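Reopening closed ticket. The problem is back. First fold of the pair:
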Amino acid sequence: MFDKVLIANRGEIALRIQRACKELGIATVAVHSTADAEAMHVRLADESVCIGPPQASDSYLNIPRLLAACEITGADAVHPGYGFLSENARFAEILEDHNITFIGPSSEHIRIMGDKIAAKETVQRLGIPVVPGSEGGVRGDLEARKVSEAIGYPVLVKAASGGGGRGMKVVHKPEDLSSSMAAARSEAKAAFGDDTVYIEKFLTRPRHIEIQVFGDGQGNAVHLGERDCSLQRRHQKVLEEAPSPALNADSRRRIGETVAKAIGDLGYRSAGTVEFLYEDGQFFFIEMNTRLQVEHPVTEMITGIDLVLEQIRVASGSQLTLTQDDVTFSGHAIECRINAENPRTFRPSPGRITYWHPPGGLGVRVDSGVYQGYSIPPYYDSLIGKLVVHGKTRNECLMRLKRALSEFVIDGIETTIPLFNELIRQPDIANGMYDIHWLEKFLSKP
């Protein structure tokens, strides 16, 4: 087991990793920018190192400074959390070259899955169903027209690198294809330094279903069920739940077993998430995230398995102690992403929190690194906390969520709590009848 883990992240996920380390008796190092000097994860760590000014490029994304922090503190492992450098294969390689363990997958698997085209080809060989589309990158308009005509409109032009909805354009008719290709390439180049794009069939009313997997790099792998992440705005997840109200026991078992076998055959190590679009009873692979997900707590709530603790154990060389028969599912869980944003315009709302009262009670979990008097800096993602509730049934979970939201008080800034208060009162949400386009339509109503 490791002696000291450096956490290359900030906010609630840094605090989440700290807690797992402390339960394992491992010392922690918090790194922080000058803007995060008073952050909770910095206050609670065993050691802390300032790695630069507020801009992420000069601090949390600066590999030489993170490496120096490891050397100064003697950290023998790094947990990247999510975002920032969590899916940066070069960062993992550099740490390995310096005999520092990257708590996550191998750099090879990060690199494969980070390239959407290579990922699609890899999982297809492993037996995972994929969305119909181009065999690889599409460069010219003629090739794009041929592919689009073969699979039928509408189609989706997607960046081969990156994610988060950038470099992604929906094309409904042939005359819009050329301009959409140019726009997607330009956006992809600016965001990811790679203008390669490919084409897939655009599904009209799919759910976004993702399977949580875990492997030990030694051929052992399990799945921990699915999460439904269909409530999205601009391809960004807003609310997640597990299990999905759209799946039955048979479809859940089949896709879980398929993915777990593929991950074991791949020799994948650590936590990972295989994401699908689900429509008319069929699953279509879209990408794999080779890291811990923001929404991992909903899986923890229904399985009782600490994903971060397992990441650390496996990274230290231990075999996976879980078998698929050991994984049991209990009840229902929902997560709301609480952002420092206007609940309607989604304009960021940094500033000082003048009052902070999180909810409590049975089945209620709040993952957050903020506190009363804390000033939210304007330089980073607006996520300030995650409200996660669990109930024996989905209906009980929804009722508990209503109660928890009514108790959650944050003053001094705007948050998305009012949006969730609206959403959970909608019949479609109560009945589980929504797809990935539902929230955009709801928000467009006057």
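Second fold of the pair, where the issue appears:
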Amino acid sequence: MTNKSKLAQLKEMTTVVADTGDFDAIAQYAPEDATTNPSLLLKAAQMPAYRGLVEEVIESVTGGKLSSDEQLSACMDKLAVSFGEKILATIPGRVSTEVDARLSFDCAGSIAKARQLIALYEQAGIGKERVLIKMASTWEGIRAAQQLEKEGINCNLTLLFNFTQAVAAADAGAYLISPFVGRILDWYKANTGLTDYAPADDPGVQSVTRIFNYYKQCGYDTVVMGASFRNTEEITELAGCDRLTISPQLLQALDDDYGVLERKLDPESTGDKIHYRLGGEAAFRYELNDDPMATEKLSDGIRAFVADQVKLETWLRDIQL
């Protein structure tokens, strides 16, 4: 036992990020940064505490009625930015705001949407240095991030499930990647017949560890931010990672635990040299296709984000009837 919680100890070696759109939860755990996505925005927008914010956004965009698809799209962008603006009032760092997942295979469309979101933040008096634009780690998403980074718009490449995606993202100069630990574990539990993994043997933990060590060995500046955790053991096995984005429930569990937290990842101690060379687009697509877990989870993740985007759009229309 120590006089510090595991959350407090984790903050000494890793930047802790809140994975939520709930302002109150963010304020409670005092993270450096926060991330949002369509699923989190849907959940937060429907909370009674934020109904006033939602109605204010609709009124500012349309005068009270979402009478066209263009108005609805503008409302969705403004809502995401309004939540981001409120979140930034409670944290010292950055907020991640996601591009519409329906643009995951549209490089030009993703770039245009990212510029629109940054423009909305700037209209609210928030500089782009406090925002990360989230996009799926498809070939098109990575290419969009490459262009946006050249424009000074930093990107968070999400729905990242394998080493090929991670190397492509770093080669493109992405500011940050979000490898999804828990969803990798979900796939292995569902497809291998093995349902009980020791923390160090968790395939999601092993994936992030390999990516972290390779990045540090190669001198990449791209930040590794583990995401999508299923339990606190996955988090503690990645203590020392650049950043970890954690749900309020798991933040609370870490805050309640006063055991000793050991550093597991260290840029000065990355093990044996990892040898890898990524080819071009054809090689990327082949290697992603050759990984059934990454292929399935990337597709599932895009579909799920699109579904929640559509649910939020439908809900916004319905509350006006």
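Update: turned out to be a display glitch only; the data is intact. The mean pLDDT is 94. The radius of gyration is 19 Å. Please close again.
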